[in-house]
TrEMBL record:
It catalyses: cytidine(1402) in 16S rRNA + S-adenosyl-L-methionine = 2'-O-methylcytidine(1402) in 16S rRNA + S-adenosyl-L-homocysteine + H(+). Catalyzes the 2'-O-methylation of the ribose of cytidine 1402 (C1402) in 16S rRNA. This is Ribosomal RNA small subunit methyltransferase I. It comes from the Bacteria. The gene is rsmI. It comes from Rhodovulum marinum. Belongs to the methyltransferase superfamily. RsmI family. Keywords: Cytoplasm, Methyltransferase, rRNA processing, S-adenosyl-L-methionine, Transferase. One of its GO terms (molecular function) is rRNA (cytosine-2'-O-)-methyltransferase activity. Residues 29-232 form the Tetrapyrrole methylase domain. It is an enzyme of class 2 (transferase).
Length: 303
C-alpha cells in the first residue's frame, strides 16, 4: 500500500532495537504492519517477526531492507521476495508452498497494515484455502491514524479505498456510499485530490464535514478540517505533495416513516428510559433527536 514509507528525511542511525527476540516462529503467513512514516512507530512484535521469519515477502524490497537496517536486523541469507500488485499467482503459490513446507513467511506492505489497499488479501485468501495458518501482527495504519486526528465520528466507519477515476464509475461510488450513516475513509493521489474534493462537494453536498490528512506521522504532517465546500476551495489550484487520506462525515440515510419511528420507539420505551429510548431510535433511524423526543412525549401522553 503506497500510503507512506519511512521518511527519507529521517536521520535515525542504524542501531540494534531493544529486546528483539530471535525465536522460531510457527509455520504460516505472518502479516506484519510497518510504519507509515516515522520508523520508530514499528512494534516490538513486528521486529521480532522480521528478525525470526524464515522468509520475508515485501511489497517493496528496498523499503523493507531499509527498515530492517534502521532497527539493526540482519537479513542474512534469508530470502527477500518481492510480492506486490503486479506479482502473479506463481509468487503466491511459492510463498504458500514455503509455508506448507514448515517455513514462517513474514509479509509486509510498503507501509501500513497488510490487507488495507494492498496485495495482502489474495495471499491470505489462497493461504486459508490451502489450510495454511495466517497470523496478524497489528500496528500502524493510515486509516486509523486519520480517524484519530480528523475529529469525525469513529463509531461507524466505511473504508472506501481508492476512488475510481472515470466519471461514471466515480458517480456510482458516490451514489453507493454517500447516504450511509458512517464516516467515509478514502485514499487519493495528491495530484487528484483537488478535483476529487470538488466532485465530492458536488455529489454529497458542500456542507458535509470532512478532513484531509496529509503526510501522517511524517515531518510535514498536515490535517485540514472543514466542510467539503471549504476544503474544495482550499485545495483548488494548490500543488499538493505526500500521501493523502480524505475523510467525510456521515450522511443521513433516507428518513424513516412515522410508523417505523413509532414502532421503534414503543419497543425502546418498553425497556429503557425516555432519554435512552430517544437516543437509541434517533441513532438507529438517522433522525433528529428533537423529532424523536417529541414523538416519544406524544406516545406517553396518549397512554
Amino acid at each position: 500500500m503506497r500510503i507512506g514509507r519511512p521518511s527519507k528525511r529521517q536521520t535515525i542511525p542504524e542501531r540494534p532495537a531493544l529486546d528483539i527476540l530471535h525465536t522460531p516462529l510457527s509455520p504460516g503467513i505472518h502479516f506484519v504492519a510497518t510504519p507509515i512514516g516515522a520508523a520508530r512507530d514499528i512494534t516490538l512484535r513486528a521486529l521480532d517477526i522480521l528478525a525470526s521469519a524464515d522468509v520475508i515477502a515485501a511489497e517493496d524490497t528496498r523499503t523493507a531492507r531499509h527498515l530492517m537496517q534502521i532497527h539493526g536486523i540482519a537479513l542474512g541469507d534469508r530470502p527477500l521476495i518481492a510480492y506486490h500488485d503486479h506479482s502473479g499467482p506463481g509468487v503466491r503459490d511459492k510463498l504458500i508452498a514455503m509455508a506448507t513446507g514448515g517455513k514462517s513467511v513474514a509479509c509486509v506492505s510498503e507501509a501500513g497494515t497488510p490487507m488495507v489497499a494492498d496485495p495482502g488479501f489474495p495471499l491470505a485468501r489462497d493461504a486459508i484455502a490451502a489450510g495454511v495458518p495466517v497470523h496478524a501482527a497489528p500496528g500502524p495504519s493510515a486509516m486509523l491514524a486519520a480517524l484519530t486526528v480528523a475529529g469525525l465520528p469513529s463509531d461507524r466507519v466505511l473504508f472506501a479505498g481508492f476512488p475510481p477515476q472515470q466519471g461514471a464509475a466515480r458517480k456510482a461510488m458516490f451514489d453507493e456510499v454517500g447516504g450511509l450513516a458512517a464516516t467515509l475513509v478514502i485514499y487519493e493521489s495528491p495530484k487528484r485530490v483537488a478535483r476529487f474534493l470538488a466532485d465530492l462537494a458536488g455529489a454529497l453536498g458542500p456542507d458535509r464535514p470532512a478532513a484531509v490528512c496529509r503526510e501522517l506521522t511524517k515531518r510535514f504532517e498536515e490535517v485540514t478540517r472543514g466542510t467539503l465546500g471549504e476544503l474544495a476551495a482550499a485545495f483548488e489550484g494548490r500543488e499538493v505533495k505526500g500521501e493523502i487520506v480524505v475523510l467525510v462525515g456521515r450522511g443521513m440515510a433516507e428518513a424513516a416513516g412515522a410508523d417505523e419511528m413509532e414502532a421503534a420507539l414503543r419497543a425502546a420505551l418498553a425497556r429503557a428510559s425516555v432519554k435512552d429510548a430517544v437516543a437509541e431510535v434517533a441513532s438507529a433511524l438517522g433522525l433528529p433527536r428533537r423529532q424523536v423526543y417529541q414523538a416519544a412525549l406524544k406516545l406517553e401522553a396518549d397512554e
